[in-house]
Write a structure and sequence with these properties.
Blueprint lengths: L4 H9 L9 E9 L3 H12 L4 E5 L31 H13 L3 H10 L11 H13 L4 E5 L9 E4 L2 E6 L5 E9 L5 H5 L4 E2 L5 H4 L22 E3 L2 E6 L27 E2 L5 E3 L12 H8 L40 H24 L5 H8 L2 E3 L20 E2 L21 E5 L9 E5 L2 E5 L11 E4 L13 E2 L8 H7 L2 H21 L8 H10 L8
Parallel strand pairs: 1-2, 1-6, 2-3, 6-18
Antiparallel strand pairs: 4-5, 5-6, 7-13, 8-9, 10-12, 11-12, 14-17, 15-16
Helix pairs in contact: 1-5, 2-12, 3-4, 3-5, 9-10
Length: 540
């Protein structure tokens, strides 16, 4: 059987998961093969260091290889954020452009500062090929797919220094420096670093957009949908996709987080399309809300091409679509078994929703006709039937360090400057709905924050990517920085994570070279190296 290029490259790069009590030694141990983890590995290897890149799943690249090819670069009329993309992250996009035979057009776009969002977009299998081929250039990078931290005792420390990680099968990874590049912050938690989950509330950091959004209008229901099993009867209980609970006080904190979804990669190409089928475990009761929405006059979502070769990057931005609002609140701190349970249920739900949208008689004919033309792709996620293998984890744990990024750093008026930037965030505060509850006898979405004209680009402080010195002196994170729920909503883009991955890897190597705790690294020296490597740290 002929292997796809991405699979072949990965096979050449990887070792099988270790067994028994085997030990791996590396200068830098990275847990989480996300896009940030890959870029961090490449940067460290370029600086001459050995790297062990550990990934619980079987694929490297995170959401960039799991359907999120839209990039969120230059795709909004009011602003242009491509000038923030530099260093290895820009190299990634140039490599992707070369795959499509459009590198000259891409470079001309950069030269003229034109906004051409389509040139920044890519298919998932292309991103995986780019990442895999890129890492293959560096023999110092060793990959460990299918390797998870043990549920208990996975972080071995000597005082505040992390010395080794223990995997589920008893394997041990020893290093001088460590990076947590997971979306969930699993290594931070295992290492005893302070983290938080949920919404702090406005009072915690003097913010205005945090906590419960009792005035949510963005992505709010456009029609009135009865939430009860027996319409009009609260005693009958709630239909699926609606949670029990009261609206609460505006701005108050709670444990809710914005919804997750799957970034669906669909095609209309008959030669590449796998038609939607009713999944095993399909539960028609889970789609009652969609039927009632239609009956009330609501307009259901439809797929549309967004990435090369006519494919979708369907991310659920509507009042009622594929966002699994309220289902995910325990995901960041859940056990692997619980996450698998949540993933399986959610995948069955989205598979059922696609089939429902294309086939159910309650769905308007124009919507059914639109959905029936689409299907999952034969050339994407080939080991998973064309469906993404990863949840879009929009929020995991966030580190709590000596410095916390907040709304104040990203607001236009009276902006608080970041003096030790290692990346430039150029995106508005972006938070999807966190709850779907009942308000005034109808289904009501709560939590969205997006857009407006009161935000500004801001730097990611170096102090926000390192823990408190008392907790760990040789660990950094590009994906779970010390930030409020609101600030993280602006940070959480794939390209920003890649930029941060390069910066934290650079800092890790420099800290190794100097023999210093990461907290004591001279920022001015770090800045010089980052700028030498074409990182963009402040607004040009």
């Amino acid at each position: 059987m002929k292997l796809p290029l991405a699979s072949l490259a990965l096979t050449l790069l990887s070792v099988l998961p270790l067994t028994g009590q085997e030990t791996v030694q590396a200068d830098l141990v990275i847990y989480g093969g996300t896009s940030a983890g890959v870029v961090a590995a490449v940067q460290a290897a370029k600086m001459g260091r050995s790297v062990a890149l550990i990934e619980p799943g079987q694929h490297f690249g995170g959401m960039s290889v799991e359907g999120l090819g839209g990039s969120d670069i230059d795709n909004h009329k009011p602003f242009q954020n491509s000038p923030a993309v530099g260093g290895l992250t820009l190299q990634f996009y140039r490599k992707a452009a070369r795959r499509y035979g459009r590198l000259a057009e891409f470079d001309e776009m950069l030269k003229t500062r034109e906004k051409k969002p389509a040139l920044w977009r890519f298919e998932s299998h292309v991103a995986e090929e780019v990442f895999s081929t890129w890492m293959k250039e560096f023999p110092k990078i060793r990959l460990f797919p299918g390797t998870r931290l043990a549920d208990a005792g996975s972080a071995v420390k000597e005082g505040p220094r992390l010395v080794a990680l223990k995997a589920e099968g008893g394997q041990e990874f020893r290093g001088r420096m460590f990076i947590d590049a997971t979306y969930e912050g699993d290594l931070l938690a295992a290492a005893g670093v302070s983290t938080t989950v949920g919404r702090e509330g406005n009072a915690r950091y003097g913010e205005t957009l945090n906590g419960i959004r009792a005035n949510t209008t963005y992505n709010q229901f456009s029609v009135r949908v009865d939430p009860y099993k027996t319409p009009g009867d609260p005693s009958s209980g709630l239909i699926a996709c609606i949670q029990d609970g009261v609206v609460g006080e505006h701005g108050a904190g709670d444990e809710s987080i914005q919804a997750y979804c799957f970034r669906l990669c669909l095609t209309k190409d008959p030669a590449n399309r796998i038609p939607f089928t009713k999944p095993d475990g399909f539960n028609p009761e889970e789609y009652v809300i969609y039927r009632r929405y239609v009956q009330a006059g609501g307009k259901l979502w439809k797929p549309g091409a967004a990435v090369p070769n006519g494919k979708t990057d369907l991310g659920s931005w509507h009042d009622l679509s594929g966002n699994m609002i309220g289902w995910n609140h325990d995901w960041p701190t859940a056990t692997h078994a619980r996450r698998q349970e949540l993933f399986k249920h959610s995948l069955t739900f989205i598979q059922g929703l696609c089939w429902f949208s294309a086939n159910d008689p309650s769905v308007p004919e124009d919507v059914r006709q639109a959905w029936s033309q689409w299907g999952v792709c034969k050339d994407e996620f080939q080991d998973h039937g064309g469906w993404p293998r990863m949840f879009y984890v929009r929020n995991g744990r966030r580190m709590i360090s000596d410095f916390v990024l907040t709304e104040a750093h990203g607001r236009k008026e009276n902006q608080v400057a970041v003096e030790d930037s290692v990346a430039l965030v150029w995106w508005p505060f972006d938070l999807h709905n966190a709850r779907r509850i009942v308000k005034d006898g109808a289904a009501w979405n709560e939590g969205t924050v997006f857009g407006g004209d009161k935000w500004a680009p801001f730097g990611v402080s170096y102090r926000s990517v390192v823990p408190k010195a008392s907790e760990c002196v040789n660990l950094l994170t590009p994906t779970c920085p010390s930030s409020s729920y609101v600030a993280y909503g602006a940070i959480r883009l794939e390209w920003t994570f890649m930029v941060m991955g390069q910066s934290v890897a650079t800092a890790a190597v420099m800290a190794m070279d100097s023999g210093l705790p990461v907290q004591q690294l001279d920022y001015q020296k770090l800045k010089v190296r980052l700028e030498k490597d074409a990182q963009v740290l402040n607004v040009p």
